[in-house]
Amino acid sequence: MYQKTLVAGWGDMDFNAHMRNTAYLDKSADVRMMFFADHGFPMAEFMRLKIGPVVMKDEVTYFREFHLLDEVGVTMALAGLSDDGSRMIIRNEFFRKGTLAARVSSTVGWLDLASRKLVRPPDALLQVMQGLDRCDDFVDLPDSRSQG
Questions:
Q1: Of residues 29, 41, 21, the one with CA closest to residue 124
Q2: Of 15, 28, 63, 68, which is the most buried if we count CB atoms within 10 A?
Q3: Neighbours of 68 (CB within 10 A)
Q4: Beta bridge partners of 134
Q5: Which pLDDT score is estimated for 98?
Q6: How many other CB atoms are there within 10 angstroms of residue 99's CB atom?
Q7: Residue 77, Cα to own-chain centre: how many angstroms?
Q8: Structure confidence at residue 143 (pLDDT)
Q9: 147 φ, ψ to 5°?
């Protein structure tokens, strides 16, 4: 399972002295981009390909709090994928001292930056996504062509 250890920083905190909701989304995006870079797709490669990941929906579920300077363990797995790879659901789970603290499920597509439409990713990128660990509740998604 792909995982990274981050830190709950000053800018991640809210008025109640715990990690704010949008910090979970930011850290999920950071881990996604670290995953892609670690697997041969740094930002420069996305720029060369003229595609990028676009989030269409995020769902966050909270179980425990993070406080300032807590270590934040974040995993990444695949909860859904279309046959053509144009759509996916990426699941990030957040752990505090080994205990599940939050879960972020993001519905994501590959956006062609010129046409502004979802596209099938290049074969090498699709293979990277297909190699990602799958969640127990993994679902097959419709491809971009069937969504009109």
A1: 41
A2: 28
A3: 13
A4: 78
A5: 96
A6: 10
A7: 8
A8: 83
A9: -100, 5
**Which residues touch 113 (CB under 8 Å, ≥6 apart)?**
50, 51, 52
Q: Which amino acid is at 52?
A: G
Q: Which pLDDT score is estimated for 146?
A: 59
Q: Write down the pTM of the prediction.
A: 0.93
Domains identified in the chain, total number: 1
Task: List, for residues 19-36, the tens digit of each pLDDT value.
Answer: 999 999 999 999 999 999
- According to DSSP, the β-strands at 99-112 and 87-96 are antiparallel
CATH number at residue 90: 3.10.129.10
What residue numbers bound the domain in which 97 lies? 2-147
Q: What share of the chain is helix, strand, coil (3-state, %, to 5)?
A: 25, 45, 30
Degrees to nearest 5, angle at CA 42 with 41 and 43: 120
Length of the chain: 148
Burial of 61 (0-12, 13-18, 19+ CB in 10 A): exposed
Check if the beta carbon of residue 87 is closer than 8 Å to that of residue 120.
Answer: no
CA dist 50 and 29 (Å) reads 19
Q: What's the token pair of residue 138?
A: 């993994």
